[in-house]
Amino acid sequence: MALPPLLSAIVDWLRAGYPEGVPDVDYIPLFALLGSELTDKEVNEIAEELATESDPSSAQAIRDAIKTVTNQQAHDSDVARVRARLAAGGWPLAKLERSD
């Protein structure tokens, strides 16, 4: 199923910010950052989209990060590092505007 435009744009930003793929150490702060802007359902949809294009071990790391982020607080420094990386790829630092 195709993602809504906002979620597709986020996946594109993630690909621009992490052209070589998201490193395992960034999954928790990344999904914590996304979770501050999106619903749990939307975060899971993005994770599944990323997982379908990843190798099996990366796909499992994405799924594990989603489970972990609900039980563990990401460090502010890690979130700041991920936010800076995404900003370099065109991530809008203001609240996301929904059109869907």
Give structural notes:
The protein is 65% helix and 0% strand. The chain has helices at 5-17, 24-35, 40-52, 56-69, 76-88. The longest helix is centred in the middle third of the chain and has 14 residues, at 56-69. The chain contains five helices and no strands. The radius of gyration is 12 Å and the shape is globular.
- Straight-line N-to-C gap: 16 Å
- The Rg value, from CA coordinates, equals 12 Å
Classification by helices and strands:
mainly alpha
Shape: globular
Bin the strand percentage: under 5%
The residue-averaged pLDDT reads 77
The tally of helices reads: 5
Strand count: 0
What order do the SSEs take from the amino end to the carboxyl end, as H and E?
HHHHH
> Strand count, sense and closure of the main sheet?
none
Uncertain spans: none
Helix content: 55-70%
Ordered list of secondary-structure elements with their pairings:
Blueprint: H1 5-17, H2 24-35, H3 40-52, H4 56-69, H5 76-88
Helix pairs in contact: 1-3, 1-5, 2-4, 2-5, 3-4
Brief write-up:
By secondary structure, this protein is mainly alpha-helical. It has helices at 5-17, 24-35, 40-52, 56-69, 76-88.
Features of this protein?
mainly alpha; 5 helices; 100 residues
